[in-house]
Write a structure and sequence with these properties.
single chain; 476 residues; alpha/beta; Rossmann fold; 7-stranded mixed beta sheet; 6-stranded parallel beta sheet; 15 strands; elongated; EC 2.3.1.51; HAD-like_sf; lipid metabolism; phospholipid metabolism; lipid biosynthesis
Length: 476
């Protein structure tokens, strides 16, 4: 089964909250074992003693073939958390999600979760980890129900003991069946997703088990039982190949920028320089990075210009993608810090981008005045209305600036939806991966009848348009 088939199965299957969708966490929603990051954070903070570290590693090396092995392992691991408050551990979990774990989120898992949520299903994350390790991820994914290994708490402080049975092997299966009974779910119509051989019983708890990124044991069982097998692209730490590819891509971009500027100076023609940078620079940089760009609705990029092109922002790669797609006669509005960016700063200054101090609302509003003049002169403008790169493929709240500009200049809004750029170059990463970025350029939106009073509703509708597009990608 591929991802498209898995999504179609959800969209055409039974709908409503009586259908459950149970997702394992580590290896299924995120790449690898998230507990490593949580434990390392406490170790680096000097909060784990050498004896605790040794005991945990020794038990990990011994393996967890039986449930007794696993119970012994988690008893030692969670003992290190004794004396810490729940608030402290939630804070660590949130910080680690922001700095690391969000970058290990499988984009395919995000799409599956969104498909189940769009179908009105009751979505559940079931994990042997503690609540503190997965709560931030559940919040970011909009998942209200999580099943986890319970830890003993006294007056808001952890005792270092597990409070009952851990959710591993039979523990996870039992907890899932109890949840199905307690919430009146239809087990035969529900779904389970997991990657580990220890989760066979958990997968059996619903009528639609899917071996997701399966290990050898689970793959063998899945083939014996004719279960669907679904694989996601690995999200591990980039290596030497990615380092070389990133250096080549940045080198190509730098070379193209300065070559374009040189051509402009020699020929005293700034437009020639800009066209050289956007057309040649983007193509060279993306090619050296091993990145393909697939565009849907390309004609919409040129149907009505000038325009305000708005895009969802998840990656530093987005400006290069937009340069390839829009090609010519555009400039941008971006945060003032980008003026000194080592990769794009010179280019943005040369093309006349407007740099806005987001911490000073008054200055930001004043800075947008010349942008209206730019549009009226015939040059389009590109803006990320979220204001900053997002950690996940989710759409953040759109700010009003881009839409005020379009209304004042009386030019259309053109939505540009970018998919997978965050997978290629994540917010907190400096290394590119090869792959394909999808871009959907939607039909221009006439703003001639928009008013300040109805602007919040108009923006909310546009945010939802982006969400629908990402959830159900258009085809031509």
């Amino acid at each position: 089964m591929n991802l498209a088939e898995a999504l179609q199965r959800v969209r055409t299957g039974p709908q409503g909250p009586e259908v459950g969708a149970f997702f394992d966490f580590d290896g299924t929603i995120v790449h690898g074992f998230s507990g490593v990051h949580f434990f390392r954070d406490r170790l680096l903070a000097g909060k784990v003693t050498a004896s605790e570290l040794a005991a945990t590693m020794i038990n990990g090396i011994r393996g967890t073939e039986t449930e007794d092995d696993f119970e012994r392992f988690v008893a030692i691991a969670f003992r290190a958390w004794r004396g810490h408050t729940e608030d402290e551990l939630y804070e660590i979990g949130q910080r680690l999600f922001t700095s690391t774990i969000a970058g290990h989120l499988y984009p395919e898992a995000w799409q599956l979760l969104r498909a189940h949520q769009a179908a009105g299903h009751t979505v559940v994350i079931a994990s042997s980890a503690s609540r503190y390790q997965i709560q931030a991820s559940a919040d970011a994914l909009g998942v209200d129900h999580i099943l986890f290994t319970p830890l003993e708490v006294a007056d808001g402080i952890l005792t270092g003991r597990v409070n009952g049975k851990s959710l591993w092997r039979s523990g996870k299966a039992i907890a899932s069946r109890l949840f199905i009974d307690d919430h009146g779910l239809d087990a035969s119509s529900s779904y389970t997703y997991s990657n580990g051989g220890e989760d066979v019983e958990f997968l059996e708890s619903t009528g639609n088990p899917t071996a997701t990124n399966p290990d050898r044991t689970l793959e063998r069982v899945a083939r014996e039982r004719d279960w669907p097998i679904l694989r996601f692209r690995p999200r591990g730490t980039p290596g030497a190949k990615e380092l070389v590819r990133t250096a080549a891509a940045y080198g190509g971009m730098f070379g193209s920028i300065w070559t374009g500027i040189g051509l402009g100076l020699i020929n005293r023609n700034k437009k020639l320089a800009l066209d050289s940078i956007t057309n040649i620079g983007a193509d060279v940089s993306l090619a050296l990075g091993g990145i393909d760009v697939r565009v849907q609705g390309e004609a919409n990029a040129f149907a009505r210009r000038p325009a305000v092109f708005v895009f969802n922002h998840q990656s530093q790669l987005d400006p290069v993608i937009l340069a390839k797609v829009l090609r010519h006669d555009f400039t941008g509005v971006t945060k003032k810090e980008m003026a000194n960016d080592p990769v794009f700063g010179a280019f943005l200054r040369f093309v006349g981008a407007t740099f806005v101090d987001r911490t000073d609302t008054g200055q930001a509003v004043a800075a947008l005045g010349p942008v209206v003049d730019t549009l009226r002169s015939g040059t389009s403008v590109v803006i990320a209305p979220e204001g900053t790169r997002s950690l996940t493929p989710d759409i953040g709240r759109f700010k009003k600036g881009a839409f005020h500009i379009a209304m004042q200049a009386q030019v259309p809004i053109v939505p540009v939806v970018i998919r997978n750029a965050g997978e290629i170059l994540w917010k907190h990463s400096t290394l590119m991966r090869s792959g394909t970025v999808d871009v959907a350029i939607l039909e221009p939106i006439d703003v001639s009848d928009w008013t300040r009073a109805d602007l919040p509703e108009r923006i909310a509708d546009l945010e939802n348009l982006y969400r629908r597009t990402l959830a159900d990608w258009p085809t031509e």
